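Trying the structure run again after the queue cleared.
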Amino acid sequence: MGLPLVVWANYGKYPKDLSPEMQSYAQERVTHHGVRHAKRHVRDMLYWRKRRPKTFALLMRGTLGQWYGKFERQGENWWGLYMGFTYARYAVEQGIEHIHSCWATGPATSALVASELTGVPFSFAARAGDIHPPEPGLAKKLEKASFVRVNNAYNIEYIQSFADSLDDPERHRSKVKLAYNALTLGRGSEAPVAMKPPYSLLAVGRFVPTKGYDYLLKACRLLKDRGVEFHLTLAGDGKEGPALRKLAGELGIAEQVSFPGFVTHERISELMGKADVFVMPSMVCKTGGRDGIPNVIMEAMSHTVPVVASDVAGIKEVVRDGETGRLVPEKDEHQLANAIADTVSSRERAREWAVNGRELVYELFDQERNCQRLIDLFTEHSGKPTISGREQEAA
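Done. Tokens:
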């Protein structure tokens, strides 16, 4: 859409499992970082310590002295601090007028650091695992940001609550802006949804606790006990994989469940085209971690596949029970099994839900409109660096 854009990545290249489009973009448009660039980052850190000593000291104390809730986030934010010194140099060298982080954790720390050193406004997105459970640094990031983008309405009030500890809370609450994801949802890829036994059930996602796949497997056992013929394709990978495969065996449904492993974005349409029902049994785990609105739900709806999902976070914004799919309580295999059985019992009704869901996601996640929403926010909150490239060269 013509936005002059550069992309900086806090980490090195990771070419595995990328789509051709992502590989091409990563090679041509993304500046990657990592330990092999350590000398550059050290030079940049020393540069800013000399040029902005007071700001440098405040940033170091504020980040290194902050506990971020768990060791992984601690490392992310400390590395984000380190990267921020380099990004501040980039901002001046490249004439950047706005810095945006796609996540609220370490990348947002990088953006905050670069902004504080250069005067360039920054913003960050708040999505799912990056804000649930919350980290203590979120209030400070909200205070310093020009705006915070949330991609589901559920997170608006949640992020606004961090303003309560700040001076002028209403001003900071007003910074939270809703901008739904801009998804590539191609028309014309409608799934046949044969809805004949054995019914084809599909779930796709990372094998992590927030997805609730153990409850899906338990629901499948209940379906088997009721005589419902089905086959579940549970596609994805992650640390929970071995436990899920073991559970399928213990439940006696190993023959009814396939684990194809990680699938690329290009194969999603292939899987959707064979599905009768897409299931997303998301849950809030013990730590407070949860999904926002999993993109794969919208992908299923765009293929006109009926959806059964649990009522977590922003999922109900797209899965409206009895209108665009079935919505059930989290962590309840009995209601999940009931909803799946109800969906496969009437192809005509399930098809109506799926068509409604398709039209809703085309409306909410329109690519051009939602991208324009972000562009307007960037334009409204832009500003040139307060230090010129000539001053930097002289220093």
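DSSP finds 16 helices and twelve strands in the chain. Worth checking whether this holds up in the mutant runs.
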